[in-house]
Amino acid sequence: MRPILKSNKLDDVCYEIRGPALEKSKQMEEEGHKIIKLNIGNLAVFGFDPPDEIVQDMILNMHGAAGYTDSKGMFAPRKAVMHYTQSKRINGVTIEDIYLGNGASELIVMAMNGLLNNGDEVLVPAPDYPLWTAAVSLSGGNPVHYVCDEQAGWFPDIDDMRRKITSNTKAIVVINPNNPTGALYPREILLEIIELARQHQLIILADEIYDKVLYDGEQHDSIASLADDVLFITLNGLSKNYRSCGYRAGWMVVSGEKRHARDYIDGLNMLASMRLCANAPGQFAIQTALGGYQSINDLVGPGGRLLRQRDMAHKLLTDIPGVTCVKPKAALYMFPRLDPVMYPIADDQQFAYDLLAEEKVLVVQGTGFNWIAPDHFRLVFLPNSDDLTDACGRIARFLDGYRRRHGRG
Fold first, then answer.
1. C-alpha distances in angstroms, 21 versus 15, 60, 240, 366, 393?
2. Would you place residue 10 in the very low, low, confident or very high pLDDT band (cuts 50, 70, 90)?
3. Higher local confidence (pLDDT), 371 or 409
4. Bridging pattern class, strands 364-365 and 323-324
5. Would you state the pLDDT for residue 263?
6. What is the pLDDT of residue 12?
7. Side-chain half-sphere of 189: how many Cα atoms within 13 Å?
8. For residue range 339-375, what is the model confidence (pLDDT) as tens digits?
9. Alpha-carbon Rg for the chain in angstroms
10. What angle do CA 46, 51, 54 make, to 5 degrees?
11. How far is 393 from 203, CA to CA, in rounded Å?
């Protein structure tokens, strides 16, 4: 029989958060091992529940969720998103500029599918949330990674970004707050990115899914609120701010310079129609979530569980010899650095495998986020305090053994 091969469009597509290490952990679980999974920001499995009001309203509206909705989504949740953009000071957004999706992930792929021709380039941060790189590749484009500078708090290196713009560049991806680093970009950095987009007539695609998961009183500026003469595609959803990952409820907002983007917007409308609609039960959650009391504030504010666990994880990790970590200002992750002299790692995927095999702790290697060197890894700090202490203790023990095996003890 002739072998059946995957499409060559998938040759440069990967998603290491659910990659080979996760498959190995599943195999180990089947063999009876208990794995501490620090690989994915799936809040529900760590006891972070969605607000009761969201759940109750979804149940009450379930009788009306059996039919197709408008291809862009129901009116009421889109209206709620419109009001949310107004609260974020994004100008000129109408109902027709808002698309609801099965999570922001579907809409990221849709935005790229509608934009890119073969060979087009998109500037994507390094490190990034790997779906962005994968979506560019799957859409026929070439992801070009600009460096975020760890020494500068993981802010984008504007000069590196500028150097990598070519005649083929179509867009800049901005992940703010950032996954995996937890960086929160100041307005000055955002304005510099806008100026680059303005000079080179580029689209800015803004991933703002963590815009309420902010610590230490920090405030988030939506980049689309800072200019009206550049085209912005802003993506957000309920997964993180409202602990509703499985509801798959996200939205995409088109704003800024729309007059010269009518053809692209027609393409987005076509793609929205082709998938018929986003799931209706998840749409019913959006209006309730965006209105009223924002319970995320209790988790990230003084005494909040997420704040406590961020501080605990940061201390436990940075107490390990040779481990440094920029303290996250936002999001759910640590992206620690391993001193390459003390930890001479050539293959960080193998490093993650070995940690899993020896200590039953699952993390994601830094190169899985398109980082440029095998000297970082990402972990979530969502487990309760006891489990988080246990996990970091296991990592410390593994790293101690690693140093001794390589003569760095």
1. 11, 40, 23, 13, 20
2. confident
3. 371
4. unpaired
5. 97
6. 76
7. 21
8. 999 999 999 999 999 999 999 999 999 999 999 999 9
9. 21
10. 125
11. 44
pLDDT computed for residue 17 by the predictor: 63
**Residue 195 confidence (pLDDT):** 98
Q: What pLDDT, in 10s, does the model give residues 291-329?
A: 989 999 999 999 999 999 999 999 999 999 999 999 999
Containing 190, the helix (H) or strand (E) segment is helix 187-200
Amino acid letter, 146: Y
Q: Do the Cβ atoms of 335 and 378 come closer than 8 Å?
A: yes
127, 376 Cβ separation under 8 angstroms: yes
Report which of 239, 223, 405, 395 is spatially closest to residue 320, judged by C-alpha positions: 395
- Give residues with Cβ within 8 angstroms of 212, minimum separation 6: 220, 240, 241, 294, 296, 297, 300
CB of 344 within 8 A of CB of 406?
A: yes
Q: Is 405 exposed, middle or buried (0-12, 13-18, 19+ CB in 10 A)?
A: exposed
Give the type of residue at 264: Y
Q: Which one-letter amino acid corresponds to residue 393?
A: G
> Using CA atoms, how far apart are residues 404 and 355, in angstroms rounded to an integer?
15
Say what percent of the chain tops pLDDT 70: 98
**Residue 312 CB partners (closer than 8 Å, separation 6+):** 381, 385, 388, 389
Please answer whether residues 383 and 44 qualify as being in contact, where contact means their C-beta atoms are separated by less than 8 angstroms: no
Whether 379 and 313 have beta carbons less than 8 Å apart is answered as yes
End-to-end C-alpha distance for the chain, whole angstroms: 54
Looking at residue 116, the DSSP 8-state letter turns out to be P
Phi-psi region of 114 (alpha: psi -120 to 50; beta: other; left: phi over 0): alpha
C-alpha torsion sign, points 354, 357, 361, 365: positive
Take residue 349 and report the two structure tokens written for it: 């995927």
DSSP assignment of 144-181? EEEEEEGGGTTEE-HHHHHHT--TTEEEEEEESS-TTT
Helical ranges in 32-74 per DSSP H: 52-61
Residues 6+ apart with CB under 8 A from 343: 322, 375, 399, 402, 403, 406, 408
**pLDDT of 409:** 62
The answer, yes or no, to whether residue 11 has pLDDT greater than 80, is no
Q: Alpha carbon of 143 to those of 123, 125, 178, 180, 268: distances in Å? A: 6, 9, 18, 18, 21
